[in-house]
Fold GTR9 protein.
Amino acid sequence: MWNVLLSFSGLVALIQLIFLPFFPESPPYLLLQKEDKAGCLKAMKQLWGEGNYHTEFDDLMKEKATTKGTKIMNVLEVLRERSVYPQLCTMLLLLLSLQLCGLKIFSTANLQESIIPYVSLGVSMSELVSIIFCSSIIDRFGRRTLLSGGYLLMALILVLLEISLLLSDQFLWLRYCSVVLIFLFIIAYGVGP
C-alpha cells in the first residue's frame, strides 16, 4: 500500500487547488507587481482582519520605490541570462547528485525489497522535518548562516558517505551507515540550501 501513501501528496495538492481561488492574492504581489493599491489594502484586511495597516503599506511602498528600476524576469528570461548560468549549473548538479546518490547507496546497502518503500517514505519524512525545522529557525539565524552551514554540513556528510561506501565491502555495517548518511544529507539540504 506504499503507492497509495505516496499518492496522498496528490490529494493534498488537489485540495489546495480547489480552495486556492477563494483566498486573496498576496498584498506585496498586488502592490509591487500589479500596482493595485486598493486591492493591496483589501487583501491586507481579508488576511489580517480589520485594523490600520498603513505602516505595512508604507513599507511596501518603500520597497516598491527601491525596486522601481529593476526588471522582473520570467523563467525563460532567467534561463537566457548568462550571468546566472553558474548558479543554475550548481543547482542542477546538486539536484542530480541527490537523485543518483540515493539510488546507488540503496542498492549498495542490499536492502530487502520489502524495506525499500519504507526507506523512500523515510526520505520524504526527513525532507518534511527539515523544511519545518528550517522555517522555524530561519528568522533567528538568517539565510546566510543557514546556507553556509548547510553547505559545510553537506560537504562533511558527503566525505563520510564516500568513506563508508569505499569501506562497505570490508565492514558490512557501513552499508547501513550510508543509508543514515543519505538521510542526514537530505536533512542538511532542507535546513540549509
Observations:
- The chain has a mean pLDDT of 78.
- The chain has two domains: 1-68, 75-191.
- The longest helix spans residues 116-141.
- Residues 107 and 175 are 10 Å apart (CA to CA).
